[in-house]
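2024-03-11 09:14:02 INFO worker-7 job=invfold-0412 stage=load source=structure_tokens
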């Protein structure tokens, strides 16, 4: 049995950017995807109001990159509310958490061992790639809603040369996304090589003496606190106490 887990905010913002005056594109896109993938049931996860209290508590500058874009327009919030209202009214399969990513991670943690089930996370958010496993894949829309990419562990390896679970470890070193500080002076190339060699952030710092280049070793030593802070921020929270129910999409 195939199930869709939709990152509601992410997909809605894509449809809003193309046609802000109508939610029809959002629902047509979901309908087309359900039919193309032959999925039986679906669940939508949305952001709540504000960011994750836990992440803000440990890092007040989380996602504070000073940019303001289209997503802050008043009509965007009206558009999003209309999408959610229709879903709640017709399907009652909506989960809302401070950040949808964490809600999706918490759902995946509970369903990943369901027998004879395959789950597809619908989102362009790269943070969700860390959830990929044998029966949890990602569907991404890099260009248009009519063309999607299926991401599995092999595709993550081709793109990042890492396993899905290692992506948060890489972000801990490189930083940048969501205003994560990372380790100053460590870029994607060096960061990837370090994670490949040591398998993860904790193993790297446990064997820091094995890093031959003194410059890299010094950067890692100075940036230790920011590395583990960034790891905590980049790792999705999969233990939220949420209740959910997959529903059949109307035919």
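2024-03-11 09:14:09 INFO worker-7 stage=emit residues=251
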């Amino acid at each position: 049995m195939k199930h869709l887990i939709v990152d509601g905010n992410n997909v809605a913002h894509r449809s809003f950017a193309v046609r802000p005056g109508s939610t029809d594109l959002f629902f047509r896109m979901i309908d087309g995807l359900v039919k193309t993938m032959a999925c039986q049931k679906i669940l939508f996860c949305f952001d709540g109001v504000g960011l994750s209290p836990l992440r803000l508590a440990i890092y007040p500058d989380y996602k504070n990159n000073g940019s303001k874009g289209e997503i802050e327009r008043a009509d965007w919030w009206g558009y999003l509310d209309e999408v959610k209202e229709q879903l709640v009214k017709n399907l009652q399969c909506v989960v809302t958490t401070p950040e949808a990513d964490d809600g999706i991670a918490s759902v995946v943690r509970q369903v990943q061992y369901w027998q004879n089930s395959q789950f597809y996370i619908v989102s362009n958010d790269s943070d969700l790639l860390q959830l990929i496993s044998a029966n949890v894949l990602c569907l991404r829309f890099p260009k248009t809603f009519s063309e999607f990419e299926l991401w599995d562990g092999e595709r993550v390896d081709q793109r990042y040369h890492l396993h899905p679970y290692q992506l948060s470890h890489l972000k801990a070193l490189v930083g940048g996304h969501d205003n994560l500080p990372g380790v100053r002076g460590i870029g994607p190339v060096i960061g990837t090589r370090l994670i490949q060699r040591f398998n993860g952030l904790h193993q790297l710092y446990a064997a820091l003496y094995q890093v031959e280049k003194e410059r890299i070793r010094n950067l890692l030593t100075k940036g230790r606190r920011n590395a583990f802070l960034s790891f905590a921020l980049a790792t999705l929270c999969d233990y939220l106490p949420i209740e959910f129910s997959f529903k059949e999409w109307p035919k």
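2024-03-11 09:14:09 INFO worker-7 stage=report msg="Strands lie at 2-7, 41-47, 94-97, 118-122, 136-140, 149-151, 247-248."
2024-03-11 09:14:10 INFO worker-7 job finished
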